Structure to design on (375 residues):
């Protein structure tokens, strides 16, 4: 199962795990896969603490970091030295407050409100080009980071040159074959072809169509990873058959013991079916596949205010989300998740998921061999 990209990066299995949770990154890496920490919601100080912890727990193995470098965002938010809260219009605040108070969701207690607001604003500040650079500066002081992946656009030329100079492999997310051309021209070396099934920011083309298109566009110039809709070993076998050098999974880790979700959130996840994972702009102002709820749907109704640009929509949404989680209200709970959420029905450990996927992969390969007559 080891592919050339695994050998280049120094891991045994072509299973890449995207997670905002350091425990998942560590467990996948220790199990032979390649953990990638989603850094975009951390402040630089938080990221430093997370990476230091990962360094101490991966037994010297390499791992990756993912940053969001958006090509479109609120330019005022990028420039402001003020509290980003002040850029959120009162009409939008009132819209959210009405939904929550009509549903009987209490405000957060003052000390928690202050902490949550501070953390969200500090974190969302990382979702602008300058914010991403601050996170990258932290990342570069951790030599075990072997791969840096950029979401929502190719990294700028100076960032590419800097990463290359340090021997760090550069990746980028891609939802269309045209994006792959742009990424290669920019100097990207690993393209994560992410189909619409995926949780998080996602496009419209399905993984089954996108991966071979991107593989054809890239030839042997760069490695391609398949993302979106992968939670079983049979899907790994399919992705490798399509020409990918590995799989990049996100949703499958949400249901693990190590994940950042609490027991209430996991319950919602385990009850959700594939069609509950819908594409909406409510969470960040860009299209995200997430669990459908009354809160995600509110913005779709006639008379709802327009979505705010990144990162302001995220600040507005996440403060409301914190109240919903505290009140444990399933009807209003939305979190990014892909269609494979319908295949995740109970908690398991990261190690168990890694083991199960390898077994399923071998079964799938054996199944294929039964269709190929021995010569
Ligand atoms: C909760 C969650 C948050 C995500 N956040 C990001 C992100 O910050 N940056 C990014 O590149 N991808 C993000 N993604 C997408 C993943 O990197 C990955 O491509 C996707 O989860 C793969 O599809 P799957 O969800 O079907 O496994 C996120 C996915 C999930 C489920």
């Amino acid at each position: 199962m080891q592919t050339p990209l695994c050998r280049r990066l120094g891991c045994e299995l072509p299973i890449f795990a995207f997670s905002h949770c350091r425990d998942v990154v560590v467990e996948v890496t220790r199990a032979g896969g390649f953990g990638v920490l989603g850094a975009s919601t951390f402040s630089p100080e938080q990221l430093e603490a997370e990476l230091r912890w990962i360094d101490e727990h991966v037994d010297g193995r390499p791992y990756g970091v993912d940053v969001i470098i958006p090509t479109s965002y609120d330019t005022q938010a990028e420039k402001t030295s003020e509290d980003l809260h002040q850029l959120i219009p009162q009409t939008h605040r009132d819209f959210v407050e009405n939904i929550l108070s009509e549903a009987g969701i209490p405000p957060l207690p003052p000390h928690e409100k202050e902490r949550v607001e501070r953390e969200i604003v500090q974190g969302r500040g990382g979702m602008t080009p300058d914010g991403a650079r601050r996170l990258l500066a932290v990342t570069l002081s951790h030599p075990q980071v072997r791969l840096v992946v950029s979401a929502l656009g190719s990294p700028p030329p100076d960032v590419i040159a800097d990463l290359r100079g340090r021997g760090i492999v550069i990746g980028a997310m891609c939802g269309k074959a045209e994006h792959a051309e742009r990424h290669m021209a920019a100097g990207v070396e690993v393209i994560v072809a992410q189909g619409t099934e995926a949780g998080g920011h996602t496009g419209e083309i399905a993984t089954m169509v996108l991966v071979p298109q991107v593989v054809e566009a890239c030839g042997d110039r760069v490695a391609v990873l398949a993302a979106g809709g992968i939670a079983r070993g049979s899907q790994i076998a399919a992705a490798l058959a399509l020409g990918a050098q590995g799989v990049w999974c996100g949703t499958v880790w949400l249901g693990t013991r190590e994940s950042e979700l609490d027991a209430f959130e996991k319950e919602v996840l385990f009850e959700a079916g594939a069609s509950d994972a819908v594409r909406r702009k409510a969470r960040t102002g860009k299209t995200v596949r997430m669990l459908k709820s009354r809160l995600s749907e509110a913005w779709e109704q006639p008379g709802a205010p327009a979505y705010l640009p990144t990162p302001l929509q995220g600040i507005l949404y996440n403060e409301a989300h914190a109240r919903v989680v505290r009140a444990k209200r399933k009807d209003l709970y939305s979190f990014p998740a892909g269609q494979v959420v319908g295949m995740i029905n109970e908690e398991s450990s990261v190690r168990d998921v890694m083991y199960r996927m390898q077994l399923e992969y071998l079964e799938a390969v054996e199944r294929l061999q039964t269709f190929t007559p021995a010569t």
Q: What stands out?
A: The chain is about 45% helix and 15% strand.
